[in-house]
Amino acid sequence: MFGLGSGVASAQDARTVYAAMTFNAEAGPMRTSACLQLTERAYPATAWWENAAGNASGPDRAFKSVIAAMKQKDRGALLKLTDPTQARDTARFDQQANAFFQQFQSIQLLGVPRAYEFDGLVVFFGKFRSQRQTVFVPLVFAYEGEDSFGFLPSRTKTVTFNIIEDWFAPSGSPPADTPAYCSDSEVKRATHRVSLGTSTWRPSSLLLTGAPLDAPGPPSTVAAQVKSTIDQMRAALRKSDVDEFFKYMTPEGGGRLRQWFAATEEKDRDEYKTAFIDQQPFFVFDESPLIVVYTRTRTSGVQVLYFTVTADKRLLWTNSSHITVSDQVFKQGPLFVAAGSPEPFRSVAIK
Q: Is residue 10 included in any domain, yes or no?
């Protein structure tokens, strides 16, 4: 089934890379200038996982063993290689194992060009070819201490894993062995660094560029535009000019809100207007073309608004009712906690 020959068994030296975070807007994914720092290992183009050399690293040994167990339909071997937490659910494990065994009869593993280590995980991106398509599929392993790694048949859904999967193997895009990294300038401009995971093994960190809207001195171009845009949106709602308000939204978001306004009662529409008018922006992260704005309200606490920059440099409120992985980054977790502190985001500022 595997047509590639054997090759060097180990990866090149690990290096630190910066993955450009994807923002899944209503109209489709867009690359942002937010950068996730993680460890990358690059592999040769040959079928290194078939080499029996004994000097491989812990992650490489685990990967080789799992691929061999799948090819041989060896349930017992695969169970021993599986992370104990997932191995305990035998019904779920059997379901996953049978699916792997069946799939490996009809697909070909063409290569494994990259693996990433972050937040207690190792993710190998295997390029698989079936009769219909060629795609990258992540195979995930959990760090268990002392260079030992357990396979996760049911993939983790941690926020950093989701970020990396969206970055390396974006949905709807042709597979590319080398992903798009952040530029040096995008990394150097960062003002804030936040760890989204909890593991102490290969902790990742997200680099962001932001500032309070009331920072001393003249406001930045982005800060001034954010304040102006939100002021105009609030002014439109105060006049009940919803058509003017919709101009500051993406077509998808504006269309949904227009339908809601037409179907709901006046009381609910008034409550919506009041809630938006009450928002006071206080901090902005410029991850152009994504702008993340944190606001405060008297009744609801901290809120988050996403804006995207159009071709003619206008800001449009984006994902007003669209939930994505980005919400796990900006609306939950340590970054959201930092937003609500007495000195917002000071705890994650780069000193």
A: no
